[in-house]
Amino acid sequence: MGVLLLSSPAFPTLFLFSLIALCLIPQHALASITRHYKFEIKQQNVTRLCHTKSIVTVNGQFPGPRIVAREGDRLLIKVVNHVQHNISIHWHGIRQLRTGWADGPAYVTQCPIQTGNSYVYNFTIVGQRGTLWWHAHISWLRSTLHGPIVILPKLGVPYPFTKPYKEVPIIFGEWWNADPEAVIKQALQTGGGPNVSDAYTFNGLPGPLYNCSAKDAFKLKVKSGKTYLLRLINAALNDELFFSIANHTLKVVDADAVYVKPFETDTILITPGQTTNVLLKTKPHFPNATFFMTARPYVTGLGTFDNSTVAGILEYESPSKTLHSTLPMKKLPLFKPILPALNDTSFATKFSNKLRSLANAQFPANVPQKVDKHFFFTVGLGTNPCNKHNQTCQGPNGTMFAASVNNVSFVMPTTALLQAHFSGQSNRVYSSNFPSSPVIPFNYTGTPPNNTMVSNGTKLVVLPFNTSVELIMQDTSILGAESHPLHLHGYNFFVVGQGFGNFDQNKDPANFNLVDPVERNTVGVPSGGWVAIRFLADNPGVWFMHCHLEIHTSWGLKMAWVVLDGKLPNQKLLPPPADLPTC
Question: Residues 6 or more apart from 441 whose CB is under 8 A from it?
């Protein structure tokens, strides 16, 4: 998307005329527009850590282009595939009301876009404003195919916090010197854990703490006495991250494109898939210093991980050239933040407990007060038998790593679930008997059972339209307790409770927050604990739910919900677009 700038002498007059014309148009007429974007998927040579490789990009950019829209706008995004991989793009966190065909997960709502083909994602942003993001939703291609979605409030509607001087998206990512597609292919063949990334990145840049990376550092240049809105996005494949800026406090105002009660913190925790908007108030005077902003992982599992730190630089604009010449930036003292310990679950718990909905008249928290259907899902790791004849696999005790929900490791179909549902041919593609609770209950966070084998299948839950759902997601200790960021497509949900150990149906619901719980699309199931969410199934379609740690998704920690049409015309899934890709 480009901006047309007029540089002719007539520009001031024309601009003034346009401004007057705009003022004369009724406000509602400006309420929403259609915005067009074109995503050309192509290979691009990129160098990081002295390592050059060809990566899959949108329009040759890494990270990809920013999408900017207002609440109520319609988006038409044409994706053209010029690479050898199949492609699909997910608009993470967009509700996709009745437009499930545009949601993007391959083999769930669409067949992927094959080489040489294109598809137009057509959807409207309804009742949402804040930061979301887009990413590839097939294999591990999202490692380089991702970018921000900035949703501004409707024209004339202010933020419910201080208007920022400037807004800056910062995407946290991971960089592999190897091809991530080869990394996951090898892991699935051997049954073992995947090789880890070589660096973390801010907006694609690893920063000065890595070898051969001093020049590839993200710099945030700021003025004294100003307020900046940082739109933070965790696009890392497999790592939750702590983030902090030395000697500065951050005020959290938004999570997953939903306003929250503002609170101040030195450090934020953000899981893959999540977004967090924070206000950064700069120091009132030039501080005679520069400051590191850093991120490193929060680790709870037993597997290997990238134990490194990405750093960017917060640099103040000097008040005068004289001062700048006497104090070169390189000579200024550099302050570094202190991040929590890698396994600081206590910080993680306290941080998530601070997140609360605004829950006011303008931005209510419509928490379902009654529940039609209760579900209890265990989420965690497991094993499959080795599929190599006369050889051992590299998973636990010669098996292959797997992951599951209620011990069902999800098998992806070869045609799209939504197409099968819409055309009435679901029998050949999936079954509707996903267990609403574990088939064999056990002490979920105690001594793990001897048998860690999972079952495998393409099983879904079917919900009538407008069903109010309560879902408990329980971590297990099988192959090690671990935090799991679960993402639900097509919905926001309210996080009404969380705790450690096994969920107690008799005691825990009494402590649920049904007044101002945080509303989001991705939530961390605590390591060795549980989380309770509620949502109203008011969006017909087939909606994927999965762990946003990409390796766990690859191993099968995923499932889907079928939400049936309602009776009224505006409660029915729209028909598929003519250019929907075929398998």
Answer: none
Same domain, 425 and 567: yes
- Boundaries of domain holding 483: 373-571
CA distances from 157 to 18, 27, 66, 67, 362 (A): 21, 11, 22, 20, 11
Quote the mean pLDDT of the chain. Answer: 93
Residue 22 lies in a domain: no
- Tens digits of per-residue pLDDT, 11-58? 333 333 333 333 344 444 456 899 999 999 999 999 999 999 999 999
Residue 299 domain-assigned (yes or no): yes
The token pair at 492 is: 């926001």
What separation in angstroms does the CA of 37 have from each of 24, 62, 74, 89, 113?
A: 29, 17, 11, 13, 17
Place of tokens 């915005």: 35
CB 131 within 8 A of CB 156: no
DSSP 336-351: ---PPPTT-HHHHHHH
Q: Which two tokens stand for residue 241?
A: 């991250």
pLDDT tens-digit readout, 168-189: 999 999 999 999 999 999 999 9
Residues 177 and 145 in one domain: no
Residue with tokens 């995004």: 77
Instruction: Say how far apart CA 408 and CA 427 lie, in whole Å.
Output: 18
Q: Convert 29-98 into a string of H (helix), E (strand) and C (coil).
A: HHCCCEEEEEEEEEEEEEEECCEEEEEEEECCECCCCCEEEECCCEEEEEEEECCCCCECEEEECCCCCC
Q: Is the pTM of this model over 0.70?
A: yes
Sort 303 into a burial class: Cβ within 10 Å, 0-12 / 13-18 / 19+: middle
The three-class DSSP label of residue 138 is coil
**Could you tell me the two tokens for 114?**
């094959």
Pairing mode of beta strands 67-70, 146-152: parallel
Domain count, the chain: 3
* CATH number, domain containing residue 475: 2.60.40.420
Among 539, 533, 451, 554, smallest CA distance to 490 is for 539
Q: What does the pLDDT look like over 336-346, one tens digit per residue?
A: 999 999 999 99
Report phi then psi at 558, rounded to 5: -160, 155
Model pLDDT for residues 419-445, shown as the tens digit of each residue: 999 999 999 999 999 999 999 999 999
289/168 same-domain check: yes
